[in-house]
TrEMBL record:
Residues 29-370 form the Sulfatase N-terminal domain. Its cofactor is Ca(2+). This is Arylsulfatase G. It comes from Thinocorus orbignyianus. Gene3D superfamilies: 3.30.1120.10, Alkaline Phosphatase, subunit A (3.40.720.10). One of its GO terms (cellular component) is lysosome. Residues 1-27 form the signal peptide. One of its GO terms (molecular function) is arylsulfatase activity. The keyword Calcium applies. The keyword Glycoprotein applies. InterPro entries: Alkaline_phosphatase_core_sf, Sulfatase, Sulfatase_CS, Sulfatase_N. Its EC number is 3.1.6.1, 3.1.6.15. It is an enzyme of class 3 (hydrolase). It comes from the Eukaryota. The gene is Arsg.
Amino acid sequence: TGTPSPRAVLVLAVVLVGLWAPRAEFGQPNFILILADDVGWGDLGANWAETKETPRLDELAAEGMRFVDFHSAASTCSPSRASLLTGRLGARNGVTHNFAVTSVGGLPLNETTLAEVLREAGYSTGAIGKWHLGHHGHHHPSFRGFDYYLGIPYSHDMGCTDTPGYNLPPCPPCPRHGTAARVARKDCYTEVALPLFENLTIIQQPVNLSSLAARYAEEAARFIQQASHSGRPFFLYLALAHMHVPLGVPPSPPASGRSIYGASLAEMDALVGRIKQVADSHGKGNTLLWFTGDNGPWAQKCELGGRPGPFVGAWQRQRGGSSAKQTTWEGGHRVPALAYWPGHIPANRTSHALLSTLDIFPTLVALAGAALPPNRRFDGLDVSPVLFGWSDVGHKVLLHPNSGAAGKVGEVEALRLAQYKAFYTTGGAMACDGSIGPAVRHQPPLIFNLDRDIREQEPLDMASREYQAVLPALSRAYTQALQDISTDNVSLADYSKDPAVTPCCDPQHVACRCQAPGAPAAPLPPGMERRAPRLCL
């Protein structure tokens, strides 16, 4: 190899200046990251014509960029969120399955969150909504880079409420003083009420689910307004309760004939529309809004689960079990995704790049002019060239870990390379009919061509030329990925449990109530604020 010519160096310099020019022009943008829960790819009207309940999200798609080959980093709550906030798969960051109400640990403390990096870069940081990355001690969001937190520390079906909403099976309200002990119902949390935190303090237990969406919207708007007036850039992570069960909608669906799920979807759409409106009113063009989901729909919940669109995992369905949430079938991890940034992201653009929630961390860090944390490897890419419309190239290889459906949790069981997807293990989660697809190891792997078979119905014939041609590249990619993870700085999460760490604002009251049944949220009694952190952390 010789010394590069002066002309080559000049060309490279011009290219680099061209790439960085827009960043100098816009300074440090604000970031709003909205994460929906258990939302299906087909829950977005812009993706799936049959869906009519998302006019504001569809408007967001028309005014920004819609990603049609966008994936969550895992197919269930905690691992997906850990990967989103670290840019690393669970095999690296240690979070391979969900944390419990009694979990002592959480996202390992040696992992650096997106909020920590952005706060160091001068950002105001806020988290509103579901956390599910540990609530005890320093795992709480207030110690993970967020200046402000309002939300529920885990899924909102992990505690009883006085307004239970719609679930399958239906869950009873929290117990009250004087009521007879009830028989515990399978799949229902009945003894401890669902807590709502503001920073380190429980301000309501049980949460009023009926007003939760409005409360989140109000607090998000307040955070945006206050941060905008401060003159500092801001990062808001809004992790919605929608579309996870229980669904909290009016007692009877609207006269329009919408289903319970449809009415809840419309409520989420309105909430996102409100956030966009507030962001636009505080300097349109200064804020990048990114909307996506943590995993696919929860098929076990039948008509209260979302719509996967065409991603039905037909091969698995024929053998029993669901091919959505928890699985490595497309319905488990292909999620809706939109990005909106007037003046920077082209309007009404559809991207077919292979992207992931893993990419959000490195992309926002780069746009903020910050540096990635050292001494670890990242699974995400800086995809700002895709956002700006300069490129439509994403991942060459994308890994899909098991999220509870079959095999060992966190293990890479499927791999995507271009249009090909290889399965080394298959299995279904629990379906609406109660069936669970058995775990099956595949060596050599099943390979699907998603360009021709988006339903994942018919794997390639192993004797075919196409299979034989693509197998070596897939096998190399799989081996290299596992080797890369094994030689990285890998964290281990503490999954131990202790009932003493259960969030409880007043252990003297049945179900840990903070307030009288049916009463509106009220200021906590004197001393409660000091006591809550001790009890809950």
